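Duplicate of #3305? Posting structure anyway:
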């Protein structure tokens, strides 16, 4: 019946609801760590492209228009965005949705990154998870079979088969000794990243 609580007349018969209505109308939007990362990425990509808020508004898809002041609220953290908004903004910015969900490109691979509901992980772990290469909590001891099973359950069938064929072709061209060294190096790197992530998580708890 009423928009903002300021338009409710003093003699309104349901004035006992005024405090609750006022509280609902003025409650601040609370974003989690992922929400903040998304809003910061939107602003970062927009500025990198040299777009104003009005420019980005004009580039929004016809079936998902968004006013420039709405985009401003999103970037400032005063407004949430849903999945449809995320996809539409990604299209307007000419980036993948992963770009808006992931740590910025200049983040080093061992930088601690907090994700909503999952805790702190290294930037590499977050990136590999978003790309469906590894489970977010995958240990460094994960076997190739376990990795493939995770990817099989997350990739479209055609994409998984193409990926497997590409890996097989690459492996056939690499010297077995060099491949073993490369595998050992990657496993050592993953082990170090997992250790750093766990230490940062413990420090955060303290």
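Output from current build:
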């Amino acid at each position: 019946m009423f928009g903002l609580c300021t338009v409710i007349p003093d003699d309104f018969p349901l004035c006992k609801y005024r405090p609750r209505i006022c509280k609902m109308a003025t409650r601040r939007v609370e974003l989690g760590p992922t929400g903040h990362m998304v809003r910061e990425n939107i602003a970062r990509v927009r500025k990198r492209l040299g777009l104003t808020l009005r420019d980005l508004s004009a580039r929004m898809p016809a079936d998902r228009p968004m006013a420039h002041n709405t985009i401003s609220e999103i970037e400032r953290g005063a407004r949430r965005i849903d999945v449809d908004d995320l996809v539409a903004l990604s299209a307007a910015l000419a980036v993948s949705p992963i770009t808006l969900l992931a740590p910025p490109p200049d983040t080093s691979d061992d930088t601690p990154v907090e994700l909503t509901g999952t805790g702190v992980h290294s930037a590499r772990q977050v990136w590999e998870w978003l790309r469906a290469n590894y489970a977010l909590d995958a240990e460094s001891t994960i076997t190739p079979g376990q990795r493939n099973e995770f990817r099989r359950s997350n990739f479209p069938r055609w994409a998984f088969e193409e990926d497997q064929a590409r890996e097989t072709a690459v492996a056939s061209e690499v010297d077995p000794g060099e491949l073993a060294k490369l595998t050992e190096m990657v496993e050592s790197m993953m082990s170090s990243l997992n250790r750093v992530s766990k230490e940062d998580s413990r420090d955060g708890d303290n």
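Confirmed duplicate; merging threads. The radius of gyration is 23 Å. Residues 23 and 104 are 36 Å apart (CA to CA).
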